[in-house]
Amino acid sequence: MTALLHLAALAATAFGLVAAAVVFAAARRLMPALAVLLDFLIAAGLLRLAGGTSWDAVVMAAAVIAVRKLVTAGLRFSPPH
C-alpha cells in the first residue's frame, strides 16, 4: 500500500471517530453514532483495498460491511424513544 493511501485510510478512521462522537453528542443515541463510524470504517477499508488486495483486507472490508448492514437493520426496527 502506498503511503498516501495508508494516510488516507488513517484519516478516514480518525474522521469517523470524530464524526461518531459528534453524532452521539447531538443525538444521545449510540446506534446512529455507530452507523456513522462504520460508514467511515468502510471507506477506510476500501482505501486499503485500493493499495493492494489481500484476502485479509477483503475479509476485513466484508466484515465491516456486514456489521454495518446489521446496525442499519437494527436502526430501522428499533422502537422510537
TrEMBL record:
Keywords: Membrane, Transmembrane, Transmembrane helix. The chain crosses the membrane at residues 30-50. It comes from the Bacteria. The keyword Membrane applies. This is DUF1622 domain-containing protein. It comes from Streptomyces prasinopilosus. The lineage of its organism: Bacteria, Bacillati, Actinomycetota, Actinomycetes, Kitasatosporales.
